[in-house]
Write a structure and sequence with these properties.
Elements lengths: L1 H18 L7 H8 L4 H25 L5 H22 L6 E5 L2 E4 H26 L12 H18 L4 H12 L3 H21 L9 H22 L4 H24 L1
Antiparallel strand pairs: 1-2
Helix pairs in contact: 1-2, 1-9, 2-3, 3-8, 3-9, 4-6, 4-8, 5-10, 6-7, 7-8
Length: 263
């Protein structure tokens, strides 16, 4: 099982390198079900792992001129502050036992994993649709809608802060449709935003959790190696079919987690 867990850690990075947005959705399930780490702590570890791997991916894209730094910071005004506030104040306030309905007990673990399963199902549907129809296309650059951009930033920040997932499957269409970025620049910019969101969000956890730094750095290193492997592989495979196939895999995983936690 330990060997499987470490192979799955490499798959986190490989999937991020292959499919971009949505690739980090595997991190929390791997930590919870294969390494046996509690869900809340797993979301914290996920922020660090996703943040570091996304930073590596963002740097690669920046060197190729595919990161709009100004757009990333504009979007980050709302998303980064929301992530940090969520991790600093909302996460520590979640009790172990939330409520009891007749013979049904709602626990912190069940709530987190059910919400994460719903996120996985949402990401899977987005990836399957994009894989079948081609990537989101942008036409003429739209006028910048700042209130809408800030609103989306808060939503993505809340998702990232609560569940420890990067939200790339939400970010990329937002940057294409609302900001008018070309697809390649949207992917590179989203990786930079994810890195900022995740690492600053993780800083909000310091003092709330006892971090096993040796374990965390080891898993992060494996995932970072994976993103290089995934990046090399992506040049040799059909990205549309790959995203569709990965979407179906995430859909099955999300359904399994939802049924497992509820039943």
């Amino acid at each position: 099982m330990e060997v499987v867990a470490y192979l799955a850690s490499a798959l986190i990075g490989i999937s991020l390198g292959l499919v971009g947005g949505g690739g980090s959705i595997l991190t929390v399930p791997v930590l919870v079900y294969l390494f046996g780490i509690p869900p809340l702590l797993s979301t914290s570890y996920s922020l660090f792992i996703v943040g570091c791997t996304s930073l590596v991916g963002a740097w690669q894209n920046y060197r190729n001129g595919l990161v709009q730094v100004k757009t990333a910071f504009l979007f980050g005004i709302s998303s980064i502050s929301t992530v940090w506030l969520t991790r600093k104040f909302l996460i520590p306030a979640i009790p172990q036992h939330i409520a009891t309905f007749d013979h049904f007990e709602l626990t912190e673990r069940m709530l987190m994993m059910v919400l994460f399963a719903i996120l996985m199902l949402t990401a899977a549907i987005a990836m399957i649709r994009n894989g079948k129809s081609g990537e989101v296309c942008n036409k003429a650059e739209p006028p910048l809608n700042l209130p809408k951009l800030l609103f989306y930033g808060v939503g993505i920040g809340l998702t990232t802060g609560l569940l420890g997932a990067g939200g790339g499957f939400l970010l990329i269409p937002t940057l294409v449709v609302l900001v008018g970025l070309p697809m390649k620049e949207a992917i590179g910019t989203s990786l930079f935003i994810i890195a900022l969101n995740s690492l600053i969000g993780f800083s909000g956890d310091l003092g709330h959790f006892e971090i096993d730094w040796f374990f965390l750095l080891k898993i992060t290193a494996i995932a970072v190696i994976g993103i290089f492997v995934g990046g090399k592989m992506s040049a040799k495979v059909d990205s549309k079919k790959l995203k569709t196939g990965f979407g179906w895999f995430v859909l099955l995983m999300g359904t399994y987690i939802l049924l497992k936690e509820i039943l």
